[in-house]
Amino acid sequence: MFHPSDVIPVSIVTGFLGAGKSTLLNRLLHAPALSDAAVIINEFGEVGIDHMLVETSGENVVELSNGCLCCTVRGELIDTLADLLDKAQTGRIKPFSRVIIETTGLADPVPVLKAVMAHPAIAATFRVDGVVTLVDAISGLKTIETYDEAARQAAVADRLVMTKTDLVDEDTVSKLRSRLSAINPMAEIVDVNDEIASRPTLLVAGLFDPESKPGHVGEWLSNADTGHHHHHHHDVNRHGEHIRAFALQTGPVDSLSTIQAFLQRLAAQYGEKLLRIKGIVAVSNADAPFVVHGVQETVYPPRRLKSAGEDDKGNTRLVVITRDLREADVRDLFDAFLNNPVIDRPDRAALEDNPLSAFGFKLS
């Protein structure tokens, strides 16, 4: 029986772009113990696909796609939690015993924690049970040194899950484990292939305790200003001055190999500028679409999506997140592999900096 007085645990699953959050959630959500979990999925950019990639038999899946879960959408997260509670109490959705929040890879987790812990009405019903942070063993060390968000994700974690450890040597795994221990000495570090990473108990850490974290975590949580200044509230497709998201869309393709060849070329040509690419590919005469994804220079094998909505079966959508890479360059390469003619068009980033560039004027 669902009572308004029930305290509902909230698990936060975070980690940088491509760390494997959706893959881990798919593994965990098959467990009967999480059959009544509500899942909130936050995506960066106006076109989202992650909500289609998380396979759950439940109806309590909510997508937030207004940008990363920082100060700009913290209010929306609070509203979403309140709305889920109201719907469960009034019987519009089935009762849920846990909320799982999957953040975008670019999210600073501190505002997410504050949204649950500091808002009086939310804190009366929800409590942060724990933070699980995934770290990619292939690029994790460099990512932590390059992006503050990745370091903060590791610092607040109750459990740190190293992913893709089977794709690197033991020395790399050892160095990553040491670095993570230095950042967050109290967090439990597990390998994604460990048994605990396959059980729902991975998400259960007890009441989140800032006192058990490095000293600066408490300071982050107590400060009204999180220090998260990327000024992208005006554009959900931008994260700071360098990172942007956009979508490549087309109808069904004749062969999956065409898209895979495009991804391989994109990764080889642009490497570190390609932070993440993930998409759903509709293939002519195939009964289900395929999921494709890659991180920087690495493109992973495609897999068949078990289910998709009718609107998704005929559409190919790739979400691309880049750093200092022109959108036009990626689109031109995509069109070339699809044998589409390239039409002269002004780059969107250039237009934003100089709206008159489309008419041949330059700003001095």
From TrEMBL:
Xref: SUPFAM superfamilies: Hypothetical protein YjiA, C-terminal domain, P-loop containing nucleoside triphosphate hydrolases
GO molecular function: hydrolase activity; nucleotide binding
Any GO CC annotation of this UniProt entry: cytoplasm
Family note: Belongs to the SIMIBI class G3E GTPase family. ZNG1 subfamily.
Reaction equations catalysed: GTP + H2O = GDP + phosphate + H(+)
Keywords: Chaperone, Hydrolase, Nucleotide-binding
Organism per entry: Martelella mediterranea
Cited function: Zinc chaperone that directly transfers zinc cofactor to target proteins, thereby activating them. Zinc is transferred from the CXCC motif in the GTPase domain to the zinc binding site in target proteins in a process requiring GTP hydrolysis.
One Pfam short name: CobW_C
Name of the protein in question: G3E family GTPase
Keyword Transcription regulation among record annotations: no
InterPro entries, A to Z: CobW-likC_sf, CobW-like_C, CobW/HypB/UreG_nucleotide-bd, P-loop_NTPase, Zinc-reg_GTPase_activator
Record domain CobW C-terminal: where: 243-338
Keyword Chaperone applies: yes
